[in-house]
Amino acid sequence: MSGLAWAGIGLAGIGLVLILFCILRAVQLRRGDADPEVASAGLKRVILVNTAAVALAFLGLAMLLAGLLIF
Fold first, then answer.
1. How far apart are CA 20 and CA 13, in angstroms?
2. In angstroms, how far is CA 20 from the centroid of its own chain?
3. How much is the pLDDT for 68?
4. DSSP string of 27-71?
5. Which residues cross the membrane (predicted)?
6. Eight-class DSSP state of 1
7. Residue 10 pLDDT > 90, yes or no?
8. For the segment 19-65, what is each residue's pLDDT rounded down to a tens digit?
9. Can you tell me the distance from the alpha carbon of 22 to that of 6, in angstroms, rounded to the nearest whole number?
10. CA distances from residue 46 to 26, 52, 54, 61 in whole angstroms, order as listed
């Protein structure tokens, strides 16, 4: 069952990288001189990606925990 643990580590890592991307993109949108409507649409997209990234990281951590408990 170590494969389950390694898959969980991979998913959690991908989720964390996506969360960092969301943070950097949100800061970039807030500092930019874009139109408020364009910035709002961009932030809504960042929120969607951020929610998916948190879910992916949670799933990866759950898989890691399951793999460790089974092992």
1. 11
2. 7
3. 92
4. HHHHHS---HHHHHHHHHHHHHHHHHHHHHHHHHHHHHHHHHHH-
5. 6-27, 47-70
6. -
7. yes
8. 999 999 999 998 888 788 888 999 999 999 999 999 999 999 999 99
9. 24
10. 7, 10, 12, 22
Which amino acid is it at 1? M
Contact at 8 Å (CB) between 11 and 65? Answer: no
pLDDT value, residue 12: 96
Q: What is the pLDDT of residue 44?
A: 95
Q: Is the distance from CB of 12 to CB of 64 less than 8 angstroms? A: yes
Cβ burial, residue 55 (10 Å; 0-12/13-18/19+): exposed
